[in-house]
Amino acid sequence: xxxxxxxxxxxxxxxxxxxxxxxxxxxxxxxxxxxxxxxxxxxxxxxxxxxxxxxxxxxxxxxxxxxxxxxxxxxxxxxxxxxxxxxxxxxxxxxxxxxxxxxxxxxxxxxxxxxxxxxxxxxxxxxxxxxxxxxxxxxxxxxxxxxxxxxxxxxxxxxxxxxxxxxxxxxxxxxxxxxxxxxxxxxxxxxxxxxxxxxxxxxxxxxxxxxxxxxxxxxxxxxxxxxxxxxxxxxxxxxxxxxxxxxxxxxxxxxxxxxxxxxxxxxxxxxxxxxxxxxxxxxxxxxxxxxxxxxxxxxxxxxxxxxxxxxxxxxxxxxxxxxxxxxxxxxxxxxxxxxxxxxxxxxxxxxxxxxxxxxxxxxxxxxxxxxxxxxxxxxxxxxxxxxxxxxxxxxxxxxxxxxxx
Length: 405
Fold this sequence. Notes:
By secondary structure, this protein is an alpha+beta fold. It is 50% helix and 14% strand.
């Protein structure tokens, strides 16, 4: 899932583990724990595209890391509070800035939603975010700079369990997405992907965030603090169950469509499109082609139409199947990929698990995840193309298709 969602989940888990003893500190360090696994994206700055691609959601998202990393993070946090440094003015300013940074990151992510779905920022949404950030800054200043500092008497194992649960729940949620999560590292690079929720879904995140924000307003011993925190956790879990129900419905419709059209296939997969759980991307693998379609859970009939045929075109990389970058992309895409030749002659590999932008015959730049293949030293070298733009009418068509037909 996106980093904002993982921050919210980590903060809620931190509250469950240490909320009564540490108050909002439990939320803050839970949010930190929920962020730690995604720090593997820093590899993007020091490695090539394929190495970074394979490293993300790797060892830092494993069960092994969840059990071992909290030993270090818990010890460091315990020593910090045991020394009494948390009472010093500089530390309190740092804590206040950290909270504001987390809040600003969340506000930025939420404001990107209308940009991605409507083509531009929403003035009411942007204005509301600024007002909320201002109110939060005023409240944090009062808590950290005006009110007396409460004593923190926590054991090392308290901090260990906070980091364990906030880190452990991170890859579990990531397993629900399409990207895949290597939870068995360093013993296996198998990627777990249940494909039941989009990597960014505001219906999951926003109610959860509101409940967490309300809970933080109460004192650590107040009953309503626990009520609202558990309400947020419960709503998020219920929504995950709803996504599984939707996936089952989509799977049935896709299999029914393939049977009705007498399409023979080896395997298939379904996954929700970005920012929602209504419109799903469906793809089945045949001998030399893939069969692709879109289905909304709001469609009146359990049939997918049209079904598009996407050639595999594996002959375009004949002799390069064992190249290092090709092997990485075959593994990353779980074998759901095809090759095309762009108008300029450049070879392009498309990861078909994520589909493409628009409900029409796709053009090369429409594929959400695609990589340019360039000959180098006798091998094909892959580089991700991050330039993805919606064409005129695509967003409107996307919204209309989401609401069913």
